[in-house]
């Protein structure tokens, strides 16, 4: 009974502590909608090409890429003009078309859905000519209203990694907001993992390099659930509450897995347990997990791993650039 109470207490503590920021912000805005994007019905009803357009809900990124390869430039531009919300969020569509479709949201926006709290993915650097690609997967409380945090980290990482590296700031899933059960369960992470795997499949369909995933806080839960379904070259786990796996072998990935946690990161207090769906399991920085652990003694807080001048940022840039010395 004592052990049972200890496990329950740990799971409750995980519920209260796990998050993506130290702010403890209350939930903001409405939920990000699921299901069809705006304009999907008109897209599917469009018979101007004499054949059906790929269903955004069922077509694979590879099938989408093949579809666009068979179009003329004029046909592609007309689809961008008539169906921007679909083309701009369609994994497998050519990068330049997605930028054009999302132009009102800013430069090099790879995905944009303003409904609810919103979803967005923005590219720093030249994605189409990049020799290396990195994707930053953020944790809790990141949406359109707070996306500047992730965008800033991506810009700093790209600048330090160099011109051959493009970095995608990916707020492409509904993150937990505020303090509550969502941080301690895998419900939102499972949905995010599906979206992340489609993103990486879209990069692959476009003939782009295998990405490195930088997964912060609750974002590492997303990456843990997506690992087996992505072709990531490296997975970097940052300030993690767990990846819903007992170790690297349980991720079923060929990626090199790195892990880092500062001694000053509050997330060290989160118990690494899983009980009745609560908690995210083993500590990725523990020796038994099997990840390569990076030093972080100079990182002062949970949100400071990407700060310029830190040892972690230098290591992240080297990994992103394909040179993890």
UniProtKB/TrEMBL annotation:
One Pfam family per UniProt: Abhydrolase_8
Keywords: Hydrolase, Signal
Limits of the DUF1023 domain: 113-273
Gene Ontology MF terms: hydrolase activity
Record's signal peptide: 1-25
Protein name: Alpha/beta hydrolase
UniProt source species: Micromonospora siamensis
Organismal lineage: Bacteria, Bacillati, Actinomycetota, Actinomycetes, Micromonosporales
